[in-house]
Description:
The protein is mostly beta strands. Helix content is 4%, strand content 42%. The chain has three domains: 2-178, Sandwich (Immunoglobulin-like); 181-270; 291-361, no CATH class.
Amino acid sequence: MMIGRLAQALALCGVAALGIFSVTACNPTPRPNTPPPAPILLSLEIPNDTFGNGFSGVTPAIRAAGTTPANYFVLPLLPTTAPIVRVVLALPTNSVLSMTATDASTGQTVTLPIISPPGPSSPGPTTGYFYLHSITSNSSLFYIRYPNTFQGSRSIRTMITATVGGVASAPLTFDMSFRGSTLTVSIATENNDGRVTSNPPGIDCPGVCTAVFLNTTSVLLGQSVTHNQTQFMGWTGSCIGSGNSCTVPLLLPGPAIIPMNPAVTANFRIHTNTAIPSAMTCPAPPMLPNKQWVTQPNCGNSQFAILQCDSIGYFCCGAQGGTPSPRCNGQNLTAVTCSTSQLFGGPVTHELIQPGGCYVTVP
């Protein structure tokens, strides 16, 4: 009954046709000396289900302070219904409202006219509108229907201005942003090999290397290769884990759940067993008092071990035993043993092992 009387009053005063709303529409308001206070956003709510039944409040990530907009991570709005939200506002007395909305994804800005509660004469879905649902002593509840073209937007900005006596307030501005996260995966490879997939599904790279995740707090990435000579080297970027799989967090905890847009790189290289040329010159070992460094140790007494050198120094590689090391090109790093009588024709009384070499005590 109250809404019906309100609609009748608006129609009698000609306000509905002007696309504005006044709390006391029929009473002339003197022109103020200073701008009225801006409207205050008390709450923002979105429908609970695809039928638009019930509404649930959402929490802004950034509270409005001065001219800073409040940012609500609530998009996308329900895809099977009109993009509708409802807001509770505290308004200046005798105010006339005007409202605009901008779809930041397309740059489209529209002016939303005010109407009586929706009926056969309501503006079409392309236009959008807002209407007053109810009033209390200190707040007003409005429904905002955005144009259908705004559906799927990643960011919608709404600006509401109150005018009193022909003087406009500063605008109340609030943003609605996409609450999901966009994950981007890259593959660094030398031979176009390497594959990365995700759980939940969405990433299957190369091919599909970017995916949007809405209803999950993390994504598990896994890697695989097609050719035996391809070796996975590890993950870089926003990935937690160093093995064949890693976890990518998608949300930041805080006063509001804030989505992330992480990027991850899976690194692959060609796996080869090519020996380092013997002509390569290795750096000289540090000099130690009363010690001599032997560059031909027994390579762990393994007939499969090979003495090699690189920019770091000499090292011993074997096909069996030892600790895996990338310096051995897929083989094993074999511990060097110096405690044999083969060195200098007699037992070693003291030793300090370096990669591929030993210090022996000089008599």
